[in-house]
Specification:
nine-stranded mixed beta sheet, elongated, eight-stranded mixed beta sheet, 28 strands, single chain, alpha+beta
């Protein structure tokens, strides 16, 4: 029968107060009706709720554990993935709460309020402000622009253009608000968020598919008319309406908060007619696989890095280059790598044409290449511009520049040069010549060892083994995807001034380039890389790095949000189920609610059926082979198919794992049953007026068991005492438990106490937690493996069988100790520790 109240509460819209009250009344009346008229159906209804509780408990704990692991290890993933996982947790906890409420609507209704409160606070911590979509949509590079409107690259260039004597091409910027408007008008945000929610840890195989879907949707979208109008007007105002153009990315965070080097696209030589197509291509590059991974690895959210796009006149470069105003091991030297013409291939990781250094103290060029495309005076000017930039910003700079046909230098980009401190210096002569497999050039500081993996196809990055030494031909930006997996990178070609070099240094991944013969190394060959010396060495000389590199900012924006949300998700203050404060009102997190529901649910199942037993119309008599009157009720897969159509079943018909394990002990040779003594509830039978009842067929005085394949709830009536057992034995240790209680007996009060002490000593020996009060004993064995749980169920069966009438013979405390040792040894003989 579908439970509409639970379905509604488990859905997207919480119940109103009036709906809650009506549901409570409905549940209460249903329970009364079933208990009065169809007790067997009531048991099945409650067991169904217990099953939902069991599976929900597992799922909720897995989700909590997954979120905690992301935070503790600073795993690379998108905030949308975290929000999605938090939403799944919210749904699971809601289902748990409703499953418990099904047992007792009035007792547990308050849990709904606590769940809603902590789920709301967790969601609030993960929320972000809606993106701004109002104007301005297009701005000139002067006056100085803010990063939140113009992005990092455009903001920096506008600063250089407006306040300092630097040559920066004139132009416009299509603002971040224009990008947000573009997404809003085309209803792309829901699509993007849904796709980004797939990018959890280890999503290398998923990221390409996510990227393709998002980029395709962006390229199919229409440019808003208001944006077209403002761009057209801006080009006209700048006199660029008939000029070839260059469109460059300028995302928020780019160059200023992180390099984002090479992660986004540029479009050069664009005609005015093609500007909006080019705009979409640059905007869509925000969602390339390597750009997505880079953003996530730096801990930024998608909405924190909206894309602005620079529009500049396309300058045909005579020479292009990358200038580092300091070197990794010599801050008094600057270096430049150059090519003739456009520098796109150089930045993308290809081989440079020429390189030069500049001694900043001696004010002179050193190691000038013979084929340098620039005259010495012009090259000196490049270095002097770099010095001014370093002085202006206060830190070494990574500068992208071009020289036109008249050797006029233009700055296209200047960002902080991020370099780690070199490790303790090693000289090349420190290594035996016989150990050197290849010589290259520094790209990123560090030393690492690992097995060679040669990259033959850029699309196979997801197949790179963890902690491999990646050997590649060049250093394209797409290699960013490998930085969380590899110990080091070696390239036959490439340049230390490429975009990939910047992100390798940011992630502290050892890398070298220009290492001829590197591709002749063998796959799985063990090598070591000294990044500072530029050497590939034979064998494992250094520690192999394990796992992704430590982030520079462990408290990144995403991790800060997750940390705040986890305050309402993961702390566990409900430790002891027997403590006075183990209550709904003491729940302080979603984890506490999961814990409370689990314990309360097990408690409800433990007291599932009263002493009167099962209604005969639903149960079957069990012929177990021992003199015990028992009936069973199969609630789900507790019996094999052939046992469901007969009135009396044998143990061979029982499919329930814990039932078979219990009876493996009860029916073992260790228990010597007296076949002349039939066990049922003697006390209840003697006090009843139903002496004519056939006790072997009646459920009124018999033991009973409620069975599932992995679950057993049993009331065992042995003469004048009874035991209650509630247990789960399944492959998931966190779900397994044995809860057992024992009371009564035919002896005097002292003899009952002695037997309780005897059982206590034996069960504690086998790892149970035991509590005793007078002649009442409770024992617990929780969250152990299926094998350990099963063995202790069998041991418990032997203990029950051997102590059935033992209270009648116990006289002194001395007997208890010796008898406990005797029984323990005998149990170990059949089920050893």
């Amino acid at each position: 029968m579908p439970d509409r109240c639970a379905e509604s509460a488990a859905g997207q819209h919480p119940l109103t107060r009036g709906q809650q009250i009506r549901c409570q009344i409905k549940h209460t009346l249903e329970n009364w009706f079933f208990k009065t008229c169809f007790p067997g159906l009531l048991i099945k209804k409650k067991y169904s709720a217990f099953q939902r509780l069991r599976h929900g408990d597992r799922s909720a704990l897995e989700l909590i554990s997954g979120l905690e692991e992301i935070r503790q290890k600073s795993l690379v993933c998108d905030l949308e993935y975290i929000r999605h996982q938090s939403g799944l947790l919210d749904k699971e906890v809601r289902t748990l709460v409703e499953s418990l409420i099904a047992f007792n609507p009035l007792k547990y209704a308050l849990l709904r309020n606590y769940h809603r409160k902590y789920a709301f606070y967790a969601d609030l911590c993960l929320m972000e402000d809606d993106p701004e979509t109002g104007p301005p949509y297009v701005l000139g590079l002067d006056p100085e622009l803010s990063e939140d409107l113009a992005g990092g690259k455009a903001a920096e260039l506008s600063f250089l253009l407006g306040n300092n004597d630097f040559s920066v091409p004139p132009g416009l910027v299509i603002t971040t608000r224009a990008f947000n408007l573009f997404l809003k008008k085309n209803r792309l945000l829901p699509v993007i968020r849904q796709q980004l929610s797939r990018l959890g840890p280890d999503s290398h195989d998923t990221i390409h598919n996510v990227s393709r879907i998002i980029q395709n949707r962006l390229m199919e979208a229409q440019t808003p008319n208001e944006l077209k109008e403002q761009v057209t007007a801006g080009l006209h105002q700048k006199g660029l309406e008939n000029t070839e153009l260059a469109l460059r990315s300028s995302a928020v965070g780019e160059d200023l908060q992180a390099s984002f080097a090479g992660q986004f696209e540029s479009r050069l030589g664009v005609s005015p007619d093609g500007i909006f197509q080019a705009y979409k291509e640059v905007a869509a590059s925000k969602y390339s696989p390597h750009a997505l991974y880079y953003r996530m690895s730096r801990g930024f959210t998608d909405s924190m890095t909206p894309m602005a796009v620079l529009i500049m006149p396309f300058i045909r470069a005579k020479t292009s280059g990358i200038l580092y105003t300091a070197e990794h091991n010599s801050p008094d030297r600057a270096s430049v790598h150059m090519v003739s013409g456009s520098g796109e291939k150089l930045a993308a990781g290809a081989k440079y044409q020429a390189a030069s250094r500049f001694d900043k103290k001696r004010r002179e060029l050193v190691q000038d290449s013979h084929d340098c495309p620039l005259e010495p005076d012009t090259l000196t000017t490049v270095f002097e511009i770099g010095e001014k930039l370093e002085e202006l910003f206060g830190v070494p700079q990574d500068v992208e520049w071009i020289a036109d046909g008249k050797d006029r230098i233009y700055i296209l980009q200047s960002r902080p040069l991020r370099m780690s401190e070199p490790e303790k210096p090693c000289r090349q002569e420190d290594y035996p010549e016989s150990s050197v497999l290849a010589r290259g050039q520094w790209v990123s500081t560090g030393r690492a060892s690992g097995k060679v993996h040669k990259l033959k196809d850029i699309k196979s990055i997801s197949q790179i083994p963890q902690n491999a030494v990646l050997v590649t031909d060049e250093l394209p930006p797409a290699l960013t995807l490998a930085l969380g997996r590899v110990a080091a990178v070696v390239a036959e070609k490439g340049s230390p001034a490429c975009h990939f070099a910047s992100v390798a240094r940011e992630s502290k991944t050892t890398a070298i380039c220009s290492a001829p013969g590197a591709m002749s190394l063998q796959d799985n060959q063990i090598v070591s890389i000294d990044g500072d010396s530029g050497l590939v060495l034979d064998g494992a000389l250094f520690d192999t790095r394990t796992g992704p590199p430590e982030p520079d900012q462990p408290d990144s924006p995403v991790m800060k949000k997750l940390s705040e949300a986890l305050r309402f998700i993961s702390p566990l203050s409900l430790q002891d189920p027997e403590a006075d404060d183990f209550s709904i009102r003491s729940c302080k997190s979603l984890h506490d609610i999961v814990r409370y529901v689990h314990e309360a649910g097990v408690g409800e199942m433990f007291s599932l059926v009263g002493r009167r037993g099962l209604d005969s119309y639903m149960s079957k008599r069990l012929d177990s082979g021992i003199p015990l009157v028992m009936h069973v009720l199969d609630v789900h897969s507790g019996l094999i198919s052939s046992g469901k159509s007969i009135k009396t079943v044998k143990m061979e018909h029982v499919k329930s794992r814990p039932m078979r394990q219990l009876f493996a002990g009860l029916a073992s040779p260790a228990v010597q049953w007296d076949s002349s003594v039939l066990h049922y509830d003697w006390d209840a039978y003697s006090k009843s007026s139903a002496s004519f009842v056939d006790v072997e067929k009646s459920t009124l005085f018999s033991s009973y068991a409620i069975l599932d394949r992995e679950y057993l709830h049993a009331l065992l009536r042995f003469g004048y005492h009874f035991a209650v057992l509630d247990t789960v034995a399944c492959p998931r240790p966190e779900h397994n438990y044995i809860h057992f209680s024992f009371k009564g007996g035919g002896g005097n009060q002292q003899q009952k106490f002695l037997r309780i002490e005897l059982i206590n000593l034996i069960l504690e020996h086998f790892g149970f937690s035991v509590r005793t009060t007078a002649d009442f004993l409770e024992a617990f064995f929780d969250r152990k493996s299926m094998e350990d749980t099963g063995v202790n169920l069998s041991r418990l069966g032997i203990v029950l069988g051997k102590t059935v009438l033992l209270d009648m013979r116990l006289e002194t405390p001395q007997q208890v100790g010796s008898l406990a040792e005797e029984i323990t040894e005998e149990v170990n003989g059949f089920f050893p520790v």
